[in-house]
Specification:
Layout: E1 4-7, E2 11-15, E3 18-20, E4 28-33, E5 38-42, E6 48-52, E7 58-66, H1 70-79, E8 87-97, E9 100-113, E10 118-121, E11 128-141
Antiparallel strand pairs: 1-4, 2-3, 2-8, 4-7, 5-6, 7-11, 8-9, 9-11, 10-11
Length: 142
């Protein structure tokens, strides 16, 4: 399955009305589909039944923020709540077509954490990052 990658520096990630912005310079945000769009059942004489999957819009959102940043503290607080936090939001990226500015966006719905965050320390430049993983419904809008 294909992974959609966004440059973190030119992309706006919003989760529950909060802008997530403490990305490490040069990093990317990843959005990967979990399931195919259709399911196929094959029969005799080359017949095929094609069905649109109800889980076709499920994606895994992965992004990394600087450890102990405002975004990390907020996301960690949500992870430690007694009940699962449901995330809604969007990913928006500007692009230019024929000299005009447009916005490509993915609408994110009914997301939740799927894994504990991964902590990585970088000894060269001192940046430490935390990778968050959220599974959600996503739909591309242009």
């Amino acid at each position: 399955m294909a992974i959609v990658s966004f440059k973190a520096g030119s992309t706006t990630l919003i989760l529950n009305d909060e802008v997530i912005s403490d990305f490490i310079n040069g990093d990317i945000i990843e959005l990967a589909p979990v399931n195919p769009d259709t399911a196929r059942t094959y029969g005799s004489n080359r017949s095929v039944n094609i069905q649109q999957r109800s889980d076709r819009e499920v994606y895994i959102l992965k992004f990394r923020v600087m450890r102990d940043s405002d975004s990390d503290i907020s996301l960690n607080t949500k992870m430690n709540e007694d009940k699962p936090v449901i995330f809604n939001g969007s990913i928006k990226e500007l692009f230019i077509k024929d000299g005009d500015e447009f916005t490509e966006s993915f609408e994110l719905e009914a997301g939740s954490y799927t894994d504990k965050p991964t902590h990585t320390k970088n000894n060269q430049d001192g940046n430490a990052q935390v990778e968050y993983t959220i599974e959600c419904f996503a739909r591309r809008l242009i």
